[in-house]
Amino acid sequence: MQYEELRQKYTDFYYHSFSIEEDEKQLRVTYDFEINNLSHFHPTFTLAKPDAESIAHDPLIRGCAFSLGMVELISYWKISCPPHVHVCCALDEDQVRWWKKLYFNGLGEFFYKNGIQTNEDDFMDLAGGKEVLPAITAQKQTTGNLIAVGGGKDSFVTMDLLKEEKAHNHAFVINRVMSAIHSAQAAGYTGERLINPTRTLDPAMLALNKQGYLNGHTPFSAMAAFAGYLTAAVWHKKYIVLSNESSANESTVKGSKVNHQYSKTFEFEQDFNAYVKKYLPADIHYFSMLRPLSELQIAGIFATLKPYHSVFRSCNVGQKEEKWCGHCAKCLFVCIMMTAFLDEEEVVSIFGRNMLADPEMKELFEELTGMQDNKPFECVGTRDEVNIAVAMGIRRYSRNGKQLPALYDFYTKTPYYHFYQSRSVDWHSYNEQNLLPEHFAAIVKTKLKEMSDESGKLED
Ligand SMILES: CC(=O)N[C@H]1[C@@H](OP(=O)(O)OP(=O)(O)OC[C@H]2O[C@@H](n3ccc(=O)[nH]c3=O)[C@H](O)[C@@H]2O)O[C@H](CO)[C@@H](O)[C@@H]1O[C@H](C)C(=O)N[C@@H](C)C(=O)N[C@@H](CCC(=O)O)C(=O)O
Ligand SMILES: Nc1ncnc2c1ncn2[C@@H]1O[C@H](COP(=O)(O)OP(=O)(O)OP(=O)(O)O)[C@@H](O)[C@H]1O
To answer: What is the pTM assigned to this prediction?
Structure first.
């Protein structure tokens, strides 16, 4: 179905309301969205409470629930991209600008893949309504970390960095993503220490997707940010700790701003903090623990966390079956990263096969290394990081007296090899574009120093 045609037919999107029901154990937020002449949608978010205290009327909780609805609405709006969006609660000019920026950039991949040519001004007009949310005045005391766990190597590195503070930490996993649940459990977060809210998608959206209405990528991490903030408010947590790395800042489509990982960028992290400071004030701080680090540094640290190698799963394709599909860009990317630090047998035992020896992976390999213009639409590192990891892997194969697998053999015959062949992970680099509070920064710096001292054992 075509964008312009759909916008003419379905002109208006409504965020009618959000309602909060609670009992002693949990809180459920239900949204009422509508596309005129098409459908109503009622997604929900259900979260356990730490105690029986009634919080549904707390202004902070209401503000968080409303904001989570603002991010949830993107998934429903994209079905027919109505030009006019009406929201139940009042929005000031800054808020309108803020949300439009997130929607536009967070849907960059969606617009690109659906061949939609638009701009931040024209793709929607956003209007607030009459309901004024109560002012947030009272501040509750907060403590400890809420660690968002995705199930891949990144959140394991964060959980390991914060292991000394475990008594004050909670792990946070949205939905029954078993790889993430098992990761959190493997790191010691069980029972009440693992907060596992349920987010439902409205089945009408899934049905319309099947009928051919517009579909595509939505900024999952922005939803996770607002869901994390609501969870931190309910559980009185001080820090929401993400594991987004600096490489998420690189665009996916060369020479454009189209970035699959937009809501994992430092730009979004800064925007999010500015938003909550103004509209959801509380002693809650959202930051990514791995922002100062490169993918290479993260992979190098993860390589040392051997007990977790059989548990982690980064693959989005195989996520529901908790397996590595072994054929997607993310699998190949993680394989390349781990090959920089582990021997072939260890890598094969993780993924169940050697993707580097499979000529069918060549196209993805070329996309990851930058031999082709666009990176895969996946959460992968920068082209530079991939090339350095390949060079490190080739040296490891040579040191071990092993024949190079097909993709690496191919690489040595390209000009890339001559450029990258002696490059390596830099344990001294620390990206200052980050929002780590001081004591978290000290933990990361100590780890980098430790890795630098030990680096001889890990690589050449
Ligand atoms: C697509 C998505 O975000 N999935 C996440 C979702 O999974 P869920 O089981 O709820 O839905 P799916 O089976 O994946 O999708 C069913 C259909 O619904 C549409 N849809 C889904 C989610 C949504 O927010 N909006 C939607 O319109 C979709 O188009 C399908 O037609 O929640 C899980 C946790 O509960 C996540 O783990 C799922 O994430 C996937 C593994 C995934 O591949 N996510 C990619 C979008 C992705 O690249 N994720 C990046 C985030 C990048 C960013 O935030 O910008 C990442 O996780 O690193
Ligand atoms: N279902 C989820 N619930 C809570 N947080 C999540 C969820 N999925 C992802 N996240 C957060 O987003 C971050 C980025 O996701 P991403 O999938 O890139 O990381 P990962 O799974 O930890 O590692 P990898 O890059 O190896 O997949 C995670 O580290 C985590 O902080």
So the answer is: 0.95
